[in-house]
Amino acid sequence: MSETETRENSSQTPTPASVAGPAGPSGQQDPSELIRPRSLTGNVLPKWFLPATAAVGVVVGFVISYLIGGQSVNYALWFVLAAIIYVLLSYLVTRQQLNKRKATDGLWRNLVYVAFVIALIPLISVIWSVVVDGFQGITHSSFWTQDMSQNAARTREQAIHEGEAPMGGGVLHAIIGSLLITLTATIISVPIGLLTSIYLVEYSRGGPLSRGITFFVDVMTGIPSIVAGLFGVAAMQTILVMGNQLGLWSYTAGNYSMGITAAIALCVLMIPVVVRTTEEMLRVVPNELREASYALGVRKWRTVLKVVIPTAISGIAAGVTLAIARVIGETAPILLTAGTLTRVNWDMFAGSMMSLPVYIYQTFRYPFGGPGELAYLSEQRAWGAALVLIMIVMTLNLIARIIANVFAPKKTGR
Amino acid sequence: MTTDSTDTRAQRRKSPKKPENALVSADRAGAGLDRGFAGLAKAAGIFILIILAFVAIFLSWNSVGALYQEEEGLIIGRFLSYAWPFALGTVVVAILALIMGAPIAIAVALYISHYAPPKASKTIGYIIDLLAAIPSVVYGAWGMFVLAPAMVPLYHWLSQWLYTWPEENLGWGIPFFAGSPGLGQNIFTASVVLAVMILPIISSVCREIFIQTPKLHEEAALALGATRWEMIKMAVFPFARPGIISGVMLGLGRALGETMAVVMVVSGLGFQLSIISPGNSTIPREIALNFGETGHGTERWHQLVALGLVLFVITLAVNMVARWIVSRHKEFSGAN
């Protein structure tokens, strides 16, 4: 074993101090070898080995892909070949020069590195295409101030294309719709979710009801978003028909396409997230705080409202922000429930409502002015909308992180 | 201190009206409010159960119309012949995505927890977390405009060497790679997009659990002379197995239910064996494309809701299996 050799050698060789002493280095051995015996350094490959192997992989990969591709280089093929050559070559050389264990270690290290690079490529590509294509879209002032009601006709797009009209049409209606729907969903979900987690943490003592709630909240987390959309439609149709029969209004079941329907569908996706995060936050509130409050004769509900929640409020706020960030990007449920629209609609209870994700989908799939040479105008707006959506989601995530870090309660002395 | 508090208590007993503590003084309503608040919290919990029951009841109730019509009696066969291509497409796309995404996601998690320079690893982990938050419609747009055209050469190559060439020379080609790729808008591209989408999710779950590996286990392995990979194999993976499985299952659930990426990337409708030419569909795609245009109460409408129920049951089963595996492994993992 190399370990035992190492130990024996190091006990026999002189210490660095004696080497550096007035007697000077003994003439028989290289001084650097005395300080760091060969048995310690000998069992590794030189530092330039991996970069050199990588360079060989890149060059050989280029040559092969050049020959296969018939004088034109396919970058994906080049990358794949370079990676394969690098991994194999370094494994074989290490195995030949050192030993099998080191070679296996190096093989897996290289595979992990390559996997990381492979993972980065599409993720960077997504960000890159959204930022580059989207930036053009958001620089037009009309993007922020107009809806699409003027642009539904092909003639208008044609005029913009030929330079007879200024660039027009924007996402104002979609932004307003997204904010309204998400806000309504938040207003419904947060009290229900927060009260449920208060019940789970403060009131239940592990009874069947609390176990059932925990289990079914877990189940709810896994509900596909399209099923939540179906539920929103169904719930609203039931409510409308019932109200109709009771004489409250005269909607028919077909009039379900409203902002509030989308909000109901989003609640199904949002409530479990809120429950899970707030429950976690309430559980980390130290029990001493509750006991201190009870000792002062404060009732339980005031203890919860005045002591437990204020202590956990930063975590709760962060959790709610994350939940908002999750549902604001949902497309399928809103597409089913609130439909599409080309103008601003402030009324949650009447008529369809546009939202940012649905706008992106709709505009890419069915460009204003039809597919063909006019489609680029719609695509520009849609990439702009995608950039706005990503920025909203990222900002919400950052805010959540900042809230959680900055406003976190100071840890107790323990 | 002791005398103080006895004094206060005595005072209070003497004159209960006189307030000493702001918190107590406002608390006139007392036990009633206490009970009311407890009831409210309990009601919220029960309300969640009601919502879920409503989802299940509604889906099953409206699915009946797809299986039974008064004039025709049971029409299960018709529904099954309608539904199976979509169910199969959903499962195939999700599993392809998992095969491509999960190993890379685990490797990325391993890179962040054990290979990256310690200073960079936190930032990289945070960036990966942010990527999990990118809305699916953005991934769909990317798949439609960037990935699909880029994949076309690969599809030509696959079609040439796995279908056309063997068919000409051996008389039989693999049917999954038959046909012309067109613009690359097929379910294979969709599953690549899904793999990219579930990668950050699986990776962040795995990273959390990799980091929690007891330092003593790792150091013990290294001290016995293990290389880094042997240490990971002996100390990290056994500890993290339930976490890895639950992360992968989470990704599978997400891939099964994902709608927009598939809707935007795939074109064509009919079922076919080939995964590299336009066609095939998944349950969420079928619902999203047709639900808005289908009249309420028609047989087709009921069929779409029934498809939703099938999807719900499949994802539920995946989640249950994940939970069962995790709970089973927890007992034997030897962690803690």
Automatic annotation (TrEMBL), chain A:
Keywords: Cell membrane, Membrane, Phosphate transport, Transmembrane, Transmembrane helix, Transport. It holds the Pfam family BPD_transp_1. It comes from the Bacteria. Residues 175-400 form the ABC transmembrane type-1 domain. One of its GO terms (molecular function) is phosphate transmembrane transporter activity. Its main location: membrane. GO terms for biological process: phosphate ion transmembrane transport. The chain crosses the membrane at residues 48-69, 75-94, 106-131, 174-201, 213-236, 256-275, 307-328, 382-404. PROSITE patterns: ABC_TM1. Residues 1-32 are annotated as: Disordered. It is a multi-pass membrane protein. It is found in: Cell membrane. Part of the binding-protein-dependent transport system for phosphate; probably responsible for the translocation of the substrate across the membrane. Belongs to the binding-protein-dependent transport system permease family. CysTW subfamily. NCBIfam families: 3a0107s02c. This is Phosphate transport system permease protein PstA. It comes from Nesterenkonia alkaliphila.
